[in-house]
Design brief:
- The complex is a heterodimer of chains A (157) and B (241).
- Chain A contains 3 helices and 6 strands.
- Chain A has 157 residues and is an alpha/beta fold.
- Chain A has a domain of 89 residues: Beta Polymerase, domain 2, CATH 3.30.460.80.
- By secondary structure, chain B is α/β, with parallel strands linked by helices.
- Chain B has 8 helices and 5 strands.
- A 5-stranded parallel beta sheet of chain B has the order 2-1-3-4-5.
- In chain B, helix 5 links the parallel strand 4 and strand 5.
- The longest helix of chain B is centred in the middle third of the chain and has 19 residues.
- The chains are: A alpha/beta (157), B alpha/beta (241).
- The interface between A and B is medium-sized, with 12 and 13 residues.
């Protein structure tokens, strides 16, 4: 969970992304919801202007709603000098596609592959978007809510 | 210093061999000799994937010494007689286990060590776990436990030795059955019509992070501790000295 953010950082973000960040009050502790178009731009700004050079993790979640499947991809960066984390979330539709952060952070390589493996979130322009943990002939994405937990995988189970 | 009069050495075979005609020569068939050798020089291949491997290492260490039965643990299947499957086998791992088993030379035996290798235990119903390694390879001895302790590994080895003796003598060996799989209480998913409304409500509340009856049970976070007022530098140094 994101703690209180430095006011200077908040004001600078509000200036650069006025539609997303408010200049007043604390940011959403669960992570600010950001449109998918601003995903890479926000990461680039945080890395180059505010010292968030450590890529902590990316976590995708599947929420089936009455409108259809929705996905939320939360990204966590950290500033190593101040130990300040920064979270944001991107909401995606039934066919989740999101731009990769691999050109900015080399550590995103396997983490994005893991989310592709388990949730099926396709990170566009990732150089090596293959399954990471499950076998390569696996069908389906097991952490999706529509995937039955006792799905047979012949001849092994 | 005692003189060796032949009585101080009490090994039964000693007298048997000494008193047999020809003295000092034991006669046996080659089959029996090979059988004896096979039983007491089993080389283990540790197919160790998780925490049972730690207990298997304990069995190989000096307190319960697996070496006293003539075993050697070799991390290559081509030299080994016994595969010890210690740990959960996932669907991705299963073809590798089968491949390693096929690489072992005959005669070969398999030990399933621990609940996960026997039946999958609490990972049994998960999409990526094989429910028991006997789905893939024929298991001779099951060592139940989670994990089984080192003594049980030793007992399992002795059971395997007994079994090998019967097998190589050409006697009938009863197939060892998989130990009874635990039956867990079946709790349905939320919204299952077969379970009571109370259970459904409790599941819903639990998912929301609430206590019984939907009441908030989280303890509010304590307020941030105020930094103590800055003490005088001179008094600090005075206390320390």
């Amino acid at each position: 969970m994101m703690g209180p953010v430095d006011p200077a950082l908040r004001d600078a973000l509000a200036k650069q992304f006025p539609d997303v960040f408010a200049a007043e009050g604390d940011l959403d502790p669960n992570g600010v919801v950001v449109p998918a178009e601003l995903h890479v731009a926000l990461a680039k700004t945080l890395k180059e202007s505010f010292g968030f050079t450590l890529y902590v993790s990316v976590i995708a979640t599947n929420f089936p709603t009455s409108d259809g499947e929705t996905y939320e991809v939360a990204t966590v960066l950290r500033n190593p000098t101040t130990a300040q984390p920064f979270w944001w979330r991107v909401r995606l539709g039934a066919d989740p596609q999101l731009a990769t952060l691999y050109p900015l952070f080399a550590g995103a390589d396997w983490q994005e592959r893991e989310q592709f493996d388990l949730l099926g979130v396709n990170f566009v322009d990732h150089p090596d978007m293959r399954r990471l943990m499950l076998s390569e002939d696996w069908e389906g994405f097991p952490l999706r809510k529509s995937y039955a937990i006792d799905t047979p995988h012949t001849p092994w189970r | 210093m005692a003189i060796d009069d032949g009585r101080s050495f009490e090994h039964p075979l000693y007298h048997y061999w000494e008193n047999s005609p020809g003295g000092g020569i034991g006669l046996t068939s080659l089959d029996r000799l090979l059988m004896h050798s096979a039983r007491h020089s089993l080389w283990f291949f540790p197919m160790a994937t998780s925490c049972c491997a730690i207990e298997f290492m304990t069995a190989a260490a000096s307190r319960v010494d697996l070496d006293q039965a003539g075993t050697i643990i070799r991390p290559t299947p081509r030299h080994c007689d016994v595969m010890v499957v210690a740990g959960t086998i996932t669907v991705k791992m299963a073809p590798r286990v089968k491949k390693l088993w096929d690489q072992m030379p005959e005669p070969k035996w398999a030990i399933a060590m621990g609940s996960c290798a026997i039946c999958g235990d609490f990972y049994r119903d998960i999409y990526s776990v094989v429910p028991g390694v006997d789905v893939i390879i024929p298991v001779d001895v099951y060592i139940p436990g989670c994990p089984p302790n080192a003594d049980q590994v030793m007992v399992g080895l002795q059971r395997l030795q007994d079994k090998i003796k019967l097998q190589l003598e050409g006697k009938f060996v009863e197939r060892e059955l998989r130990p009874g799989t635990m039956i867990y209480p079946k709790i349905g998913t939320h919204g299952d019509a077969r379970q009571s409304a109370e259970v459904a409500q409790a599941q819903l509340d639990g998912a929301r992070g609430l206590g019984v009856g939907g009441k908030e049970h989280r303890v509010p976070r304590p307020a941030a501790v105020q930094a103590p007022p800055e003490a005088d530098a001179t008094s600090d140094s005075g206390e320390q000295s």
